[in-house]
Amino acid sequence: NAGVTQTPKFQVLKTGQSMTLQCAQDMNHNSMYWYRQDPGMGLRLIYYSASEGTTDKGEVPNGYNVSRLNKREFSLRLESAAPSQTSVYFCASSAQGQGGGQPQHFGDGTRLSIL
Amino acid sequence: GNSVTQMEGPVTLSEEAFLTINCTYTATGYPSLFWYVQYPGEGLQLLLKATKADDKGSNKGFEATYRKETTSFHLEKGSVQVSDSAVYFCALSDRGGANNLFFGTGTRLTVIP
């Protein structure tokens, strides 16, 4: 049972470089999410995809783009990395259920440092 | 809007002590409430949840009751173990189609033998 798989686990970039964080889930979930986790701030939603073919901005979308490639995969792209984007990035997925209450399942995270 | 406020940490307890981590929320409508746990170097794992007022979620000796009148969802455990050392996050779901979660800032718990 892989659940939610994120790659890479660690990455160091220079300011201005670009990269794509990959996420795949094998639970047939409709919804997928990208968060960043910074000390003392909990998790903040960057982008989400309620279903295949749709994406929406979350709380902190600036500097990021996403692609919902298919039902399984949801990637996060940094076009021009900045030191403020140094963070731990988590991907999550969930089923859609009537009235909410569906838990999200998280990957192990990508630790990204921008120099 | 939706927001979660949880007890500032860190919290340090001796093994077998009683644990309470406070969580209060602000929400439009009737949210579902969750506690997630994060062990070092790992992602978040669902610990327990409650989907309506007066529901009690429980798992691994942890409990939390959805209190609509006080807008609270406090986490409790009667006797903590060293293996409970982790960061605990309270969260709410807005019941929208995307099932978005709103997180508190997390509370780090350290249990010493």
Description:
Chain A has no helices and eleven strands. Chain A is globular. In chain A, strands 2, 4, 5, 6, 9, 10 and 11 form a seven-stranded mixed β-sheet that branches. The N and C termini of chain A lie far apart (35 Å). By secondary structure, chain A is an all-beta fold. By secondary structure, chain B is mainly beta. In chain B, strands 2, 5, 6, 10, 11 and 12 form a six-stranded mixed β-sheet that branches. Chain B has a four-stranded antiparallel β-sheet with strand order 3-9-8-7, with no helix packed on it. Chain B is globular and about 45 Å long. The mean pLDDT of chain B is 93. Classes of the chains: A mainly beta (115), B mainly beta (113).
* Class from secondary-structure proportions of chain A: mainly beta
Q: How much of the polypeptide of chain B forms β-strand, as a percent range?
A: over 45%
Give me the number of helical elements of chain A.
Answer: 0
How do the helices and strands follow one another from N- to C-terminus of chain B? Answer: EEEEEEEEEEEE
* SSE ordering of chain A: EEEEEEEEEEE
For the sheet with most strands of chain B, the description reads:
6 strands, mixed
Give a brief outline of the structure:
The complex is a heterodimer of chains A (115) and B (113). Chain A has no helices and eleven strands.
Keywords:
heterodimer, A: 115 residues, mainly beta, 7-stranded mixed β-sheet, 11 strands, 0% helix, B: 113 residues, 6-stranded mixed β-sheet, 4-stranded antiparallel β-sheet
Task: Walk me through the topology.
The complex is a heterodimer of chains A (115) and B (113).
Chain A: E1 4-7, E2 10-13, E3 19-25, E4 31-37, E5 43-49, E6 56-57, E7 64-68, E8 74-78, E9 87-94, E10 105-106, E11 110-114
Parallel strand pairs in A: 2-11
Antiparallel strand pairs in A: 1-3, 3-8, 4-5, 4-9, 5-6, 7-8, 9-10, 9-11
Chain B: E1 3-6, E2 11-14, E3 19-21, E4 23-26, E5 32-38, E6 44-50, E7 56-59, E8 62-65, E9 75-77, E10 86-93, E11 101-103, E12 107-112
